[in-house]
Write a structure and sequence with these properties.
The structure is a single chain. By secondary structure, the protein is of the alpha+beta class. It has two domains: about 5-195, Fructose-1,6-Bisphosphatase, Chain A, domain 1 (2-Layer Sandwich); about 205-339, D-Maltodextrin-Binding Protein, domain 2, CATH 3.40.190.80. Helix content is about 30%, strand content about 25%. It has helices at about 5-15, 20-45, 65-80, 145-150, 215-230, 245-255, 275-290, 320-339; strands at about 55, 65, 85-90, 95-100, 110-115, 125-135, 155-165, 165-170, 175-185, 190-195, 205, 240, 260, 275, 295, 315, 315-320. The strands form four sheets. Strands 4-3-5-6-7-8-9-10 form an eight-stranded mixed beta sheet, with helices on both faces. Helix 2 packs antiparallel against helix 3 (about 65-80). Bound molecules: 1,6-di-O-phosphono-alpha-D-fructofuranose. Belongs to the FBPase class 1 family. It is an enzyme of class 3 (hydrolase). GO terms for molecular function: fructose 1,6-bisphosphate 1-phosphatase activity. It catalyses: beta-D-fructose 1,6-bisphosphate + H2O = beta-D-fructose 6-phosphate + phosphate.
Length: about 350
């Protein structure tokens, strides 16, 4: 069978499913094109002079890498002129970026983490881009932060790219999750997996164990049960992985199942958690649910959380359904007993 390019896939989806409008198709293609540029910049590594810190800090007070800044610029420039967007919001920028008046405006809002896992860049480990598409509320021509504060169920598309041994784009527009691989020779993303499915059960978990002593009681208890293995209450051994690039950890789960946890802990309680709701948790939750998995904040379905601020952080529990439901139930039981 002839390879199916991202463009052909989207055109066919547009014909068969009315939800994909021509503007949404253009938007996804433009994001994909920008990701190809980012992929190229990353692959040059030391030779491209793009490694190391930018000597700047983002709105969250985190040191920016040169590639954080570059990836952000690439995504902004690519998406400004097409006429498909009303505004963009990035993890790297304090406020939304409006479309300059010299360009036409569209009906969508684009949200992105231009380079997730960027602390891994300098050691040549996979990083990625995460994005989410929302509708601009009707009648709004100059969107502000408040217009981006929509619960994840409102997303019309979400995806991530993994810049790893190969560059992958994983996408949902609300009817399954599909994977495309960048064919560097022809310069286009090619469909390599249709309808990714996350197995409901798993024996593999991803968590940063160094935070264990700071976790809440139900999390301590749950992970201890996993670590107790075959002779413990779960009656089987569990394996652990932690890349510290959410895209890479989530992609492993998309491929072979597993769970990814970033619970709230004593260090992050004041901020609400470690990961950002709009740029990381919501798009990944949409993708994971579309692949048959589950995603919660430990208590509540992530997609139902209405953001209170553009850069809000939340706890994240996602992946194989039965395991996520189990850890969520433990938190709820704990809360009920405490109250
Ligand atoms: P950076 O983009 O600052 O490297 O953060 C990556 C991330 O947001 C997410 O991709 C990882 O899963 C998580 O943080 C890793 O956090 P720890 O460094 O606390 O393990």
């Amino acid at each position: 069978m002839k390879p199916i390019s991202l463009t052909r896939f989207l055109i066919e989806e547009q014909r068969s499913r009315r939800q994909i409008t021509p503007d949404l198709r253009l938007l996804i293609e433009v994001v994909a094109r920008a990701c190809k540029h980012i992929s190229l910049a990353i692959s040059k590594g030391e030779l491209g002079g793009v490694l190391g810190n930018a000597e700047a800090y983002n709105v969250q007070g985190e040191a920016q890498k040169k590639l954080d800044v570059l990836s952000n610029e690439i995504l902004l420039e690519a998406n400004e002129w097409g006429g498909h967007l009303a505004a963009l919001a990035s993890e790297e920028m304090e406020a939304p970026h409006l479309i300059p008046h010299r360009f036409p405006k569209g009906n969508y809002l684009l949200v992105f983490d231009p380079l997730d896992g960027s602390s891994n860049i300098d050691v040549n480990i996979s990083v990625g881009t995460i994005f989410s598409v929302l509708r601009c509320p009707e009648g709004v021509t100059e969107p502000t932060a408040e217009h981006f504060l929509q619960p994840g169920v409102e997303q019309v598309a979400a995806g991530y790219t993994v810049y790893g041994p190969s560059t992958l784009l994983v996408l949902t527009t609300g009817s399954g999750v599909h994977q495309f691989t960048l064919d560097r020779e022809i310069g286009s993303f090619v469909l390599t997996q249709r309808n990714l499915r996350i197995p409901e059960d798993t024996s593999e978990f991803a968590i940063n164990m160094s935070n264990q002593r700071h976790w809440e009681a139900p999390m301590q208890r749950y992970v201890q049960e996993l670590l107790d293995g075959k002779t413990g209450p779960r009656g089987r051994d569990f394996n652990m992985r932690w890349v510290a690039s959410m895209v890479a950890d989530v992609h492993r789960i998309m491929t072979r199942g597993g769970v990814f946890y970033y619970p709230v802990d004593a260090k992050t309680r004041e901020k609400g958690g470690r990961l950002r709701l709009l740029y990381e948790a919501s798009p990944m939750a949409f993708l994971v649910e579309q692949a048959g998995g589950a995603a919660t904040d430990g208590r509540q379905r992530l997609l139902e959380r209405k953001p209170e601020a553009l850069h809000q952080r939340v706890p994240v529990f996602l992946g194989s359904k039965n395991e996520v439901e189990r850890v969520t139930a433990l938190h709820r039981e704990h809360d009920a007993a405490a109250s």
